[in-house]
Amino acid sequence: MAQPASSPALTGTLSRRGLMFIMSSPSGAGKTTISRMLLERDGHICLSISVTTRKPRPGEVDGKDYYFVDQAEFDRMVENEEFLEWAPVFGHCYGTPKAHVKAGLKEGQDYLFDIDWQGTQQLYQKLERDVVRVFLLPPSISALRQRLTGRGTDSAEVIAGRMERARSEISHWDGYDYVVVNDDIDRCFEQVRKILEAERLRRARQTGLIGFVRELMQPGD
Ligand code: ADP
Ligand code: 5GP
Fold first, then answer.
1. Hey, what domains does the chain have and what are their CATH numbers?
2. Distance from the alpha carbon of residue 169 to the mean position of ligand 2, in angstroms
3. What is the pLDDT of residue 152?
4. Average of pLDDT values for 130-159?
5. 30: which of 18, 123, 160, 182 fits an S-S bond (Cβ 3.0–4.6 Å)?
6. What does DSSP say about strands 51-52 and 20-24: parallel, antiparallel, or unpaired?
7. Contacts of 197 by beta carbon, 8 Å cutoff, 6+ apart
Protein backbone atom coordinates (compact mmCIF):
# COMPACT_ATOMS: atom_id res chain seq x y z
CA MET A 1 0.00 0.00 0.00
CA ALA A 2 1.25 3.50 -0.83
CA GLN A 3 2.45 5.46 2.20
CA PRO A 4 1.84 9.14 2.86
CA ALA A 5 4.69 11.45 1.80
CA SER A 6 5.46 12.27 5.42
CA SER A 7 6.05 8.62 6.30
CA PRO A 8 9.52 8.08 7.77
CA ALA A 9 9.94 5.05 5.52
CA LEU A 10 10.01 7.42 2.54
CA THR A 11 12.33 10.09 3.86
CA GLY A 12 15.54 8.37 2.71
CA THR A 13 18.78 8.48 4.69
CA LEU A 14 18.47 9.84 8.20
CA SER A 15 20.42 12.97 8.93
CA ARG A 16 23.49 12.51 11.07
CA ARG A 17 26.42 14.42 12.47
CA GLY A 18 29.74 13.96 10.65
CA LEU A 19 32.63 12.13 12.26
CA MET A 20 36.36 12.68 12.59
CA PHE A 21 38.12 9.58 11.32
CA ILE A 22 41.69 9.65 12.55
CA MET A 23 44.30 7.37 11.05
CA SER A 24 47.73 7.26 12.62
CA SER A 25 50.66 4.93 12.15
CA PRO A 26 54.39 4.90 12.47
CA SER A 27 55.74 6.66 9.39
CA GLY A 28 55.89 4.21 6.47
CA ALA A 29 53.21 1.78 7.71
CA GLY A 30 50.83 2.87 4.96
CA LYS A 31 48.40 5.48 6.23
CA THR A 32 48.83 7.78 3.23
CA THR A 33 48.14 4.83 0.90
CA ILE A 34 45.05 3.69 2.83
CA SER A 35 43.85 7.30 3.21
CA ARG A 36 44.06 7.84 -0.56
CA MET A 37 42.08 4.66 -1.23
CA LEU A 38 39.41 5.76 1.22
CA LEU A 39 39.15 9.24 -0.29
CA GLU A 40 38.94 7.85 -3.83
CA ARG A 41 36.34 5.18 -3.08
CA ASP A 42 34.12 6.84 -0.48
CA GLY A 43 32.29 9.95 -1.60
CA HIS A 44 31.23 10.98 1.90
CA ILE A 45 34.57 11.62 3.52
CA CYS A 46 37.08 14.35 2.73
CA LEU A 47 40.57 15.05 3.99
CA SER A 48 41.13 17.56 6.74
CA ILE A 49 44.07 19.39 5.21
CA SER A 50 46.72 20.22 7.78
CA VAL A 51 49.01 23.22 7.93
CA THR A 52 52.72 22.45 8.10
CA THR A 53 56.03 24.26 8.19
CA ARG A 54 57.80 21.42 6.36
CA LYS A 55 58.72 21.89 2.72
CA PRO A 56 56.58 20.15 0.04
CA ARG A 57 57.84 16.78 -1.21
CA PRO A 58 57.98 16.22 -4.98
CA GLY A 59 54.42 15.90 -6.25
CA GLU A 60 52.79 17.46 -3.18
CA VAL A 61 50.41 20.31 -3.90
CA ASP A 62 49.74 23.30 -1.63
CA GLY A 63 46.09 23.27 -0.53
CA LYS A 64 45.65 19.61 -1.47
CA ASP A 65 48.20 17.65 0.57
CA TYR A 66 48.96 20.38 3.11
CA TYR A 67 48.88 24.14 3.45
CA PHE A 68 52.60 24.91 3.43
CA VAL A 69 53.48 27.95 5.55
CA ASP A 70 56.57 29.42 7.17
CA GLN A 71 57.19 29.38 10.91
CA ALA A 72 56.05 32.99 11.41
CA GLU A 73 52.68 32.28 9.78
CA PHE A 74 52.27 29.09 11.81
CA ASP A 75 53.03 30.97 15.04
CA ARG A 76 50.48 33.62 14.11
CA MET A 77 47.81 30.92 13.60
CA VAL A 78 48.64 29.38 16.99
CA GLU A 79 48.39 32.82 18.59
CA ASN A 80 44.97 33.41 16.97
CA GLU A 81 43.74 30.00 18.14
CA GLU A 82 43.07 28.89 14.57
CA PHE A 83 44.00 25.26 15.27
CA LEU A 84 41.94 22.42 16.74
CA GLU A 85 45.28 20.87 17.62
CA TRP A 86 48.91 21.24 16.65
CA ALA A 87 52.17 19.46 17.39
CA PRO A 88 55.85 19.46 16.47
CA VAL A 89 56.79 16.34 14.44
CA PHE A 90 60.27 15.59 13.00
CA GLY A 91 61.41 19.16 13.67
CA HIS A 92 58.46 20.80 11.88
CA CYS A 93 55.09 22.03 13.08
CA TYR A 94 51.80 20.47 11.97
CA GLY A 95 48.29 21.64 12.84
CA THR A 96 44.61 21.09 12.06
CA PRO A 97 42.74 24.28 11.09
CA LYS A 98 39.54 24.64 13.09
CA ALA A 99 36.85 26.63 11.27
CA HIS A 100 36.13 24.37 8.31
CA VAL A 101 35.92 21.14 10.25
CA LYS A 102 33.59 22.40 12.96
CA ALA A 103 31.10 23.77 10.43
CA GLY A 104 31.31 20.62 8.26
CA LEU A 105 30.62 18.22 11.12
CA LYS A 106 27.33 19.96 11.81
CA GLU A 107 26.37 19.50 8.16
CA GLY A 108 27.09 15.76 8.32
CA GLN A 109 30.46 15.91 6.55
CA ASP A 110 32.98 13.22 7.58
CA TYR A 111 36.65 14.16 7.81
CA LEU A 112 39.73 12.01 7.51
CA PHE A 113 42.71 13.03 9.64
CA ASP A 114 46.23 11.88 8.91
CA ILE A 115 47.76 13.03 12.19
CA ASP A 116 50.06 11.62 14.84
CA TRP A 117 49.24 10.37 18.35
CA GLN A 118 49.76 13.81 19.96
CA GLY A 119 47.18 15.40 17.68
CA THR A 120 44.86 12.45 18.20
CA GLN A 121 44.94 12.94 21.95
CA GLN A 122 44.22 16.64 21.61
CA LEU A 123 41.29 16.08 19.23
CA TYR A 124 39.89 13.36 21.49
CA GLN A 125 40.03 15.68 24.50
CA LYS A 126 38.18 18.40 22.60
CA LEU A 127 35.65 16.47 20.50
CA GLU A 128 35.54 12.98 22.02
CA ARG A 129 32.12 12.03 20.66
CA ASP A 130 33.00 12.87 17.06
CA VAL A 131 36.34 11.09 17.02
CA VAL A 132 37.09 7.57 15.72
CA ARG A 133 40.71 6.57 16.22
CA VAL A 134 42.38 3.97 13.97
CA PHE A 135 46.02 2.93 14.29
CA LEU A 136 47.81 1.09 11.48
CA LEU A 137 50.73 -1.19 12.26
CA PRO A 138 53.27 -2.66 9.83
CA PRO A 139 53.47 -6.47 9.76
CA SER A 140 57.11 -6.26 10.93
CA ILE A 141 59.92 -3.77 11.53
CA SER A 142 61.80 -5.06 8.48
CA ALA A 143 58.71 -4.47 6.29
CA LEU A 144 58.52 -0.94 7.67
CA ARG A 145 62.15 -0.28 6.74
CA GLN A 146 61.60 -1.71 3.26
CA ARG A 147 58.54 0.49 2.72
CA LEU A 148 60.33 3.65 3.83
CA THR A 149 63.26 2.86 1.55
CA GLY A 150 61.03 1.78 -1.34
CA ARG A 151 58.94 4.96 -1.14
CA GLY A 152 62.02 6.83 -2.27
CA THR A 153 61.02 10.17 -0.76
CA ASP A 154 63.51 10.43 2.12
CA SER A 155 67.30 10.42 2.54
CA ALA A 156 69.01 7.60 4.46
CA GLU A 157 69.39 9.98 7.40
CA VAL A 158 65.68 10.85 7.47
CA ILE A 159 64.76 7.16 7.16
CA ALA A 160 67.02 6.34 10.12
CA GLY A 161 65.23 9.04 12.15
CA ARG A 162 61.81 7.72 11.14
CA MET A 163 62.81 4.14 12.09
CA GLU A 164 64.05 5.30 15.47
CA ARG A 165 60.83 7.18 16.05
CA ALA A 166 58.67 4.27 14.85
CA ARG A 167 59.21 2.32 18.07
CA SER A 168 58.01 5.15 20.26
CA GLU A 169 55.06 5.80 17.92
CA ILE A 170 54.06 2.11 18.10
CA SER A 171 53.99 2.39 21.89
CA HIS A 172 50.89 4.61 21.55
CA TRP A 173 48.83 1.81 20.02
CA ASP A 174 46.57 1.59 23.07
CA GLY A 175 45.37 5.17 22.68
CA TYR A 176 43.26 4.11 19.69
CA ASP A 177 39.81 2.55 19.27
CA TYR A 178 40.94 0.20 16.48
CA VAL A 179 44.30 -1.30 15.54
CA VAL A 180 44.72 -2.75 12.03
CA VAL A 181 47.83 -4.51 10.71
CA ASN A 182 48.64 -3.36 7.18
CA ASP A 183 50.03 -6.57 5.73
CA ASP A 184 47.95 -7.03 2.60
CA ILE A 185 46.86 -3.62 1.34
CA ASP A 186 43.42 -4.67 0.07
CA ARG A 187 42.56 -6.53 3.26
CA CYS A 188 43.70 -3.61 5.38
CA PHE A 189 41.62 -1.20 3.32
CA GLU A 190 38.53 -3.42 3.60
CA GLN A 191 38.88 -3.52 7.39
CA VAL A 192 39.26 0.24 7.61
CA ARG A 193 36.23 0.74 5.36
CA LYS A 194 34.12 -1.51 7.56
CA ILE A 195 35.12 0.44 10.66
CA LEU A 196 34.01 3.66 8.98
CA GLU A 197 30.69 2.16 7.87
CA ALA A 198 29.89 0.84 11.33
CA GLU A 199 30.87 4.08 13.07
CA ARG A 200 28.53 6.05 10.82
CA LEU A 201 25.65 3.98 12.16
CA ARG A 202 26.29 4.77 15.82
CA ARG A 203 23.09 5.85 17.49
CA ALA A 204 24.63 8.99 18.97
CA ARG A 205 25.46 10.35 15.50
CA GLN A 206 21.95 9.88 14.10
CA THR A 207 20.50 13.32 14.68
CA GLY A 208 17.32 12.41 12.76
CA LEU A 209 16.63 9.32 14.84
CA ILE A 210 14.40 10.72 17.60
CA GLY A 211 11.84 12.14 15.19
CA PHE A 212 11.99 9.03 13.03
CA VAL A 213 11.39 6.65 15.93
CA ARG A 214 8.65 8.86 17.35
CA GLU A 215 6.82 8.65 14.05
CA LEU A 216 7.27 4.89 13.87
CA MET A 217 5.71 4.63 17.32
CA GLN A 218 2.63 6.68 16.44
CA PRO A 219 -0.50 4.66 16.89
CA GLY A 220 -2.11 3.90 13.51
CA ASP A 221 -2.34 1.09 10.93
P1 ADP B 1 52.84 6.49 5.66
O2 ADP B 1 51.84 7.46 5.10
O3 ADP B 1 52.30 5.71 6.82
O4 ADP B 1 54.16 7.13 5.96
P5 ADP B 1 52.83 5.32 2.95
O6 ADP B 1 51.38 5.13 2.68
O7 ADP B 1 53.54 6.44 2.27
O8 ADP B 1 53.12 5.36 4.53
O9 ADP B 1 53.52 3.92 2.60
C10 ADP B 1 54.93 3.77 2.60
C11 ADP B 1 55.34 2.90 1.38
O12 ADP B 1 54.86 1.56 1.59
C13 ADP B 1 54.73 3.38 0.08
O14 ADP B 1 55.68 3.25 -0.94
C15 ADP B 1 53.55 2.42 -0.15
O16 ADP B 1 53.29 2.22 -1.53
C17 ADP B 1 54.03 1.14 0.51
N18 ADP B 1 52.95 0.31 1.09
C19 ADP B 1 51.87 0.73 1.80
N20 ADP B 1 51.12 -0.31 2.21
C21 ADP B 1 51.73 -1.44 1.75
C22 ADP B 1 51.45 -2.85 1.84
N23 ADP B 1 50.39 -3.32 2.49
N24 ADP B 1 52.31 -3.70 1.26
C25 ADP B 1 53.41 -3.23 0.61
N26 ADP B 1 53.74 -1.91 0.47
C27 ADP B 1 52.92 -1.04 1.04
P1 5GP C 1 54.67 13.84 6.85
O2 5GP C 1 55.71 14.91 6.99
O3 5GP C 1 55.26 12.48 6.57
O4 5GP C 1 53.56 14.21 5.89
O5 5GP C 1 53.95 13.73 8.27
C6 5GP C 1 54.72 13.52 9.41
C7 5GP C 1 53.82 13.23 10.60
O8 5GP C 1 53.03 14.40 10.93
C9 5GP C 1 52.83 12.09 10.36
O10 5GP C 1 52.90 11.22 11.50
C11 5GP C 1 51.49 12.78 10.32
O12 5GP C 1 50.46 11.94 10.80
C13 5GP C 1 51.71 13.97 11.22
N14 5GP C 1 50.77 15.07 10.96
C15 5GP C 1 50.36 15.54 9.74
N16 5GP C 1 49.47 16.53 9.90
C17 5GP C 1 49.32 16.72 11.24
C18 5GP C 1 48.51 17.60 12.03
O19 5GP C 1 47.76 18.46 11.54
N20 5GP C 1 48.63 17.48 13.37
C21 5GP C 1 49.44 16.55 13.95
N22 5GP C 1 49.46 16.49 15.28
N23 5GP C 1 50.21 15.70 13.25
C24 5GP C 1 50.14 15.78 11.91
1. 15-48+108-215 (3.40.50.300)
2. 12
3. 85
4. 93
5. 182
6. unpaired
7. none
